[in-house]
Design brief:
The protein has helices spanning 5-48, 52-64, 75-84, 89-104, 112-118, 122-128, 131-134, 138-153, 196-207, 217-235; strands at residues 173-178, 184-190. With 248 residues, the protein is mostly helical. Helix 2 packs parallel to helix 3 and helix 3 crosses helix 4 (89-104).
Length: 248
């Protein structure tokens, strides 16, 4: 099956609409519930990690329930395995890391869910690693650095106001189709403005050494020539638009 740009755009729009609905409702609600559960885990973890007898009790409970734990396994991991189950292993490691980082930053129980959301979620805290416990401002600094890099590079282009784009100042993600010559056709907005996903990406830009791939002028010129030749064949009736990816 060969896709025309219009058919591709319609199919992408359909999937993107479902994605937007999921991100705005089910995913947002799911994340909020997970953060609340982890907040309860955090409160319990701080209690049991306060003294040796409590830590031994956690180890004993894990063993009684047939959960394999080593002597050097951190109490946070043991606790997460007891509550969420031992599998998958990445979950215990990631969630326990969140609890330990929160403890290192002195996050209060009442502020935990808000802190985790502002930090970009579980994965963002996990990727930041133990250093985030020594630098509470790391996430904010990375975001500011990312914004500075984006503004320093400057925009690729500007779109006219559109009804499917939020009417407020915010960072958004767009679904588009890139042509061989570097031009882009925009189909839809992905997710919510200033979402966790967007903020996490901006922080990753702030932490990266380079974010702009280099495309030589020669490659751009070749791509434009190829597209012009293909369009000439279409105009001459020697090639069907249904079998090409050239935008109207």
């Amino acid at each position: 099956m060969s896709y025309s740009i219009n058919k591709l755009g319609a199919d992408c729009d359909s999937i993107s609409a479902a994605l937007s609905d999921w991100e705005c409702t089910q995913l947002a609600a799911s994340n909020a519930r997970l953060y609340a559960i982890l907040a309860d885990c955090y409160a319990l973890y701080k209690l049991v990690n306060a003294n040796e007898d409590n830590r031994k009790a956690v180890t004993q409970l894990a063993e009684d329930r047939g959960i394999a734990v080593g002597k050097s396994t951190h109490t946070a991991i043991k606790l997460i395995k007891i509550i969420f189950g031992p599998e998958p292993r990445w979950r215990a490691s990631a969630y326990a890391q969140v609890l330990r980082v929160a403890e290192g930053q002195g996050v209060a129980f009442a502020d935990f869910a808000t802190w985790l959301d502002a930090a970009g979620g579980v994965e963002a805290v996990r990727r930041a690693g133990p250093t985030s416990s020594r630098d509470p401002n790391k996430a904010a600094n990375a975001y500011e650095a990312g914004v500075a890099k984006i503004q320093n590079i400057g925009p690729i282009g500007t779109l006219a106001p559109h009804q499917r784009i939020a009417e407020r100042n915010a960072y958004i993600m767009l679904l588009g189709y890139a042509e061989a010559d570097g031009s882009v056709t925009i189909f839809n907005v992905v997710g919510k403005p200033d979402s966790d996903q967007i903020n996490t990406h901006i922080r990753s830009i702030g932490n990266s050494k380079s974010i702009v791939p280099h495309i030589s002028p020669e490659k751009v010129a070749v791509a434009k020539a190829q597209k012009s030749a293909l369009q000439a064949c279409i105009d001459a009736g020697r090639l069907s638009t249904a079998n090409s990816h050239v935008a109207n």
